[in-house]
Amino acid sequence: MRTNIIRHESMMVSYDVVNGWVVAEVDGEVDAHTAPLIRDAVIKLLDEGHRHFVLDLGFVTFMDSMGLGAMVAITKRIREREGSLRIASVSGRVLRLFELSRMRESYDIYPSTAEAVQTAPSPGSLARWPHPSPG
C-alpha cells in the first residue's frame, strides 16, 4: 500500500515496500525548497528501521545541485546504517545532471523500479560508496 510522506506545492513523495526495498517515488521538483524535505523523510524512514531504498525519480520534473546534495546526504545516512540504495526511472535530463556532476558512476541506476527491486537487498552494498566497485 502506497503511503504519502511529503506533500508540498511543487513536490510529493510516497513510498511502498517491495521485496525488502522501500520504494520512494518522488514526483515534482527537487530543489533548494524540497530537497531537505526528501532528506528528512528518508532519515525518518531510517529511524523507523528501514535500511534499503529505491528512489524512483521517474516523475521528477526538475533537479538542481541542492537535489544532488540531498542525494549525497541520503546516501551517507543509509551507508551509516549498512543499508543499500538504488535509483530508478531517471529521466534523461536528471541523468545528465548525474553525469555532469560525475556522480553517475557512484550509484546503481536502473531503468525501472521493477528492475531495481527484482533482487533482494544486500546489507553493506554502499561500503565502497562513493567509488564504484572494480570490474
Descriptive keywords:
135 residues; alpha/beta; Transcription Regulator spoIIAA; 6-stranded mixed beta sheet; 4 helices; 33% strand; Anti-sigma factor antagonist
CATH architectural name: 2-Layer Sandwich
**What's the tally of helices?**
4
CATH superfamily: STAS domain
- How many DSSP-defined strands? 6
Order of helices and strands: EEEHEHEHEH
- Main sheet makeup: 6 strands, mixed
Q: Tell me the helix content.
A: 25-40%
Rg (CA only)? 13 Å
**Low-pLDDT residue intervals, each spanning 5 or more residues:** none
Number of domains: 1
Overall 3D form: globular
Through-space gap between termini: 37 Å
**Average residue-wise pLDDT:** 89
Bin the strand percentage.
25-35%
Structural class of the secondary structure composition? alpha/beta
Name of the CATH class: Alpha Beta
Description:
The protein is α/β, with parallel strands linked by helices and 135 residues long. Helices cover 31% and strands 33% of the residues. The chain has helices at residues 35-47, 65-80, 92-100, 113-116, and strands spanning 3-8, 11-18, 21-30, 52-63, 84-88, 108-110. Helix 1 runs parallel beside helix 2. It is globular. The termini are far apart. The model has no long low-confidence stretch (mean pLDDT 89).
